[in-house]
Specification:
By secondary structure, this protein is an alpha/beta fold. The chain contains six helices and five strands; from the N terminus they run αβαβαβαββαα.
Length: 296
């Protein structure tokens, strides 16, 4: 068994570690509230833009032609992997990279070329470790994503899609459900989707509802030309906000578990120290008693 000096040193080390993990837990909790509010506030806006596109599609008779919505044979796929720049958040980043690798394997099995775009340092390092380095690395995004960052990334992606260098762009992100549940997910960012098809799917659900006859100005094609790029930017911003909230939630849980483990370890070391000290005292008393008896 370790001597008392070693146990005291370990107790001090565990206590210092506990202070750090407890502080990180409190910081993550404070950041989580702000990130969660932002993620939840962005969802209605992105869903509202989709509803507007659907309404315009219905007004145009489902005949919509926009370059960002046209599906074509997929030869090149870009997978944007959104992760954090820092660790200490459990398996949060590992699960996202694992999903991205599975998606890449599925695309390669279909004969497609896959190119990774890392939205976070952890994604870049993990992809390089797996032998598939990212073509581009963007950092300082997930911690506190702004719409300006999402707009710049979306505009770059739309330019590559329109140019033909990417036929499909997928975003691997953390879908934020609650503060204790985050689920890795992959969504197609471009092409935006067949809105006419979405309209047909929702027609049955809205059959019993009274439809409003909208008057659009400008005309539907011109309106879509402005709304669709904005929808792409908003969707990407929503994905980044959800990933940010998931990162803070995962870090809070990981640091709480670490704090609890440090507490349990501290109690175990305290028990071991008290037993060792009691045994040493008992041994010294026995030696004194033995010496007195020997002198009698």
């Amino acid at each position: 068994m370790a001597n008392l000096r070693d146990i005291r040193r370990r107790r001090k080390s565990v206590t210092n570690t506990k202070k750090i993990t407890r502080t990180m837990e409190l910081v993550a909790s404070a950041k989580l509230k702000k990130a969660q509010d932002a993620a939840l506030a962005a969802r209605p806006y992105s869903e509202g833009l989709r509803d507007i596109i659907r309404e315009v599609a219905q007004a145009a008779g489902g005949q919509i032609e926009h370059p960002l919505m046209k599906s074509r044979p997929v030869k090149t796929v870009e997978i944007w992997v959104a992760t954090s720049d820092r660790g200490l958040c459990g398996a949060f980043n590992a699960n996202l990279v694992s999903l991205a690798m599975r998606r890449a394997a599925e695309h390669r099995a279909a004969g497609r070329t896959v190119r990774f775009i890392a939205l976070g340092k952890k994604a870049a390092s993990s992809l390089a470790f797996n032998g598939t380095p990212a073509a581009e690395v963007h950092s300082r995004i997930i911690g506190a994503p702004t719409f300006r960052q999402a707009r710049q990334l979306a505009e770059t992606g739309m330019a590559r899609f329109l140019k033909g260098s990417a036929d499909l762009i997928e975003v691997v992100y953390s879908r934020f459900i609650t503060a204790s549940r985050q689920h890795p997910d992959a969504m197609a960012l471009l092409p935006l989707g067949d809105v006419a098809g979405d309209t047909a799917k929702t027609a049955g659900k809205e059959a019993g509802k009274t439809r409003v006859d909208f008057i659009f100005h400008p005309a539907a094609p011109e309106l879509l030309a402005a709304i669709i790029p904005q929808t792409v930017k908003t969707l990407l911003h929503s994905f980044l906000l959800q990933t940010s909230a998931g990162e803070h939630a995962a870090r809070r849980i990981a640091m709480k578990n670490a704090t609890d483990a440090a507490t349990d370890m501290g109690k175990a070391l305290a028990t071991a120290y008290n037993r060792g000290r009691q045994g040493k005292i008992t041994q010294e008393i026995s030696e004194i008693v033995g010496a007195v008896e020997a002198m009698a």
